[in-house]
Backbone:
């Protein structure tokens, strides 16, 4: 088979040309980065877990009518997705204060938000992804007023879906980030959820113990990241055999 053409390589994923026009193959790497790639490591099995978890979340979103880029999983590390024109914004929804909002607004980690807060960050590594307002987004034409309304609505629907799913397995969805892209059906443009939804881009806390089950484990050196992601996957019934694809030996009495 001819080598596929690489279209884009990011910190945690690679995009290749897909088999049909308008499709891409998304490959999940084991690389973990934090603090704008100042901290980096390779975590065995992370790519496999995020491929499966993103598949699981996107399929759930499809089932409740939230449009997204996922078409099908190809193998342990790759999925077929719809090509989109990514809007250069990170859309963050917060239910509980954690991360960057704490020093910005003087909030203590763990403070519940009065209601889910939707924030936008300009995707630009050189600038460290600065937070931006609707004014900036419209003035610089990163998105239109209609796009803004659609992005907020998509983000809140993803929040309701993910919060409910996590609550069902004893996990609090503290916050998360999504990326949104444009697709055209003929002349009609619409926005769909793209990129990935995984513990790399969410904050997830165990309801009972407060244990962090997300990328903060890596950011703050709190233990084994793959163990945390495996725990999320196990509770959701995603790949119960673990990321190696091989079940652990069972003792037969
Ligand atoms: N996030 C992300 N990618 C980024 C920045 C943030 O996936 O480049 C996620 C992060 O994991 C968290 C949420 O967005 O779930 C809010 O992140 P925050 O603004 O608190 O920034 P951080 O503390 O991650 O720097």
Residues:
């Amino acid at each position: 088979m001819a080598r596929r053409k690489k279209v884009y390589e990011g910190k945690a994923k690679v995009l290749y040309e897909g088999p049909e026009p308008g499709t891409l193959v998304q490959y999940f790497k084991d690389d973990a980065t934090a603090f704008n790639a100042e901290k980096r490591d390779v975590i065995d099995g992370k790519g496999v877990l995020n491929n499966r978890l993103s598949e699981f979340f996107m399929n759930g979103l499809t089932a409740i009518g939230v449009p997204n880029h996922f078409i099908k999983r190809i193998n342990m590390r790759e999925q077929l997705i719809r090509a989109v024109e990514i809007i250069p914004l990170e859309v963050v929804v917060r239910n509980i204060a954690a991360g960057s909002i704490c020093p910005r607004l003087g909030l203590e980690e763990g403070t519940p938000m009065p209601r889910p807060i939707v924030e936008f960050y300009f995707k630009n590594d050189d600038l460290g992804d600065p937070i931006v307002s609707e004014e900036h987004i419209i003035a610089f034409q990163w998105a239109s007023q209609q796009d803004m309304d659609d992005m907020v609505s998509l983000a809140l629907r993803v929040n309701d879906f993910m919060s409910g799913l996590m609550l069902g397995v004893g996990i609090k969805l503290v916050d998360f980030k999504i990326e949104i892209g444009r697709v055209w059906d003929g002349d009609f443009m619409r926005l769909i959820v793209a990129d990935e939804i995984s513990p790399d881009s969410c904050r997830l806390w165990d309801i009972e113990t407060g244990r962090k089950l997300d990328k903060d484990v890596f950011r703050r050196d709190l233990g084994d990241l793959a163990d945390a992601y495996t725990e999320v996957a196990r509770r959701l019934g995603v790949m119960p055999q673990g990321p190696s694809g091989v079940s652990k030996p069972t003792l037969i009495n």
Notes: The mean pLDDT is 95. The chain has six helices and 14 strands.
